[in-house]
Amino acid sequence: xxTNRKRQGTKTxxxxxxxxxxLIAGSIVLPGYSAQDTITPIVAAGISADSSFADLIERxxxxxxxxxxxxxxxxxxxxxxxxxxxxxxxxxxxxRRGQTPMQPRQAQGVGSGFIIDKTGYIVTNNxxxxxxxxxxxxxxxxxxxxxxxxxxxxxxxxxxxxxxADELPVTTLGDSDTARVGDWVxxxxxxxxxxxxxxxxxxxxxxRDIRSGPYDDYLQIDAPINQGNSGGPIFNTQGxxxxxxxxxxxxxxxxxxxxFAIPSNLVQDIxxxxxxxxxxxxxxxxxxxxxxxxxxxxxxxxxxQNGALIADVVTDSPASSAGIKIGDVIIAYNDDDVKxxxxxxxxxxxxxSGDDIELGIWxxxxxxxxxxxxxxINTSVSVADATQELNDLGLGLVPLNDELxxxxxxxxxxxxxxxxxxxxxxxxxxxxxxxxxxxxxVDRKPIKxxxxxxxxxxxxxxxxxxxxxxxxRRGRVQQFSTLPVA
Length: 486
Description:
By secondary structure, this protein is α+β, with helices and mostly antiparallel strands. It has helices spanning 54-60, 84-94, 126-129, 264-277, 294-299, 318-322, 341-350, 402-408, 427-430, 450-462; strands at residues 12-13, 21-24, 64-73, 105-117, 121-124, 134-138, 144-153, 158-163, 172-173, 184-189, 197-208, 218-221, 233-235, 240-250, 259-263, 283-284, 287-291, 308-313, 329-333, 336-337, 356-363, 366-373, 375-376, 395-399, 417-422, 438-442, 445-446, 467-474, 477-484. The strands form five sheets. Strands 10-11-12-15-14-13 form a six-stranded antiparallel barrel.
């Protein structure tokens, strides 16, 4: 979703070392669209590859809506970081950004959504409505309604809206697990603010990880979607929604035939919980994970590369309380096999805090089983902890965890603490540090939390030193800097 002067809720996610990017499919505001006089509920509309999609689109289109948002952008500080991909993320979770004061201004944006209940519940992307002051839903027949945000889940980029209306045209969420590579799909939405637009393609891949978060499991489609399609549905040939358009892969901001949609089965679970509770309860294990390659599997005595290797265990976490150790390989979660780190992240995320689970763990040369009571991800040391205070160096720091690792596109072996806030006139800024930097070593020793940084500086001060070397990771580059000890 693009805004005037500022692209609101849009982020770029690096997926390779090439100059390509995954862009959230937002929109600029352009004139409206044509409307129909009547609204017809969706019914099954099976088609074959050589027939027209017109009947399906005619029945499906009335349930697809345009979402317009307005927000008064308050005075803030301009970007301190040179990397816009990470700066927007840190602004969302940790507040202010940058150095140069800006004037308040009004911003508008447009996205898509679809009606799932005749009483007015509407699904869209969280980034479409994030931080909006007002949200307006425009139906296909040009009626407009003010919308309430029932709840959202930023980790899967889903949101649920409610308008005061009834007897609305609705769509049905289908079974995304049955969607096969090669199946026809139809995307309907609001590209570039042009209004109801339908495009056709196929499911071109499944299970895509675009490093937008720990629960990535996207359907890849080649039906053209562009800025403004965010939150809109993709239909199968039976007229069922099998995905929610969320991102595109593009070097130039336009469609190149690779789009990504959240699978409907995940949508159904998340939206049901938001509708009931207003938010999503997720379990927290408290580990840092990495995938196995063949050399690691051989070295650990495993017969395959299946499993999630524990690279670190958070102090006082459910994992540490249960006795999980660095070097353990989790190969089973209750009755489910764990194929890799993403597998385990999704299984934990699909569980509730307080759930008792059993893990099958390969340790040394034997299989053991441990019982774990999951914690609450919202109370863990995570990127949602926006109350981090600046230290004496003018730095706000948190331990590097899986979510930050995914957002910063860091390899599994990188450890340290992340700069999430910085005072423009502080010592950290004077020594060239930025938000998103990872402090890996202090005084040539690895650190894992802010306390270890403070201890290293205190020890150096006792030794009469005025500064210590610090190893800093920024993107794909790492280099030494220094920090004062007093």
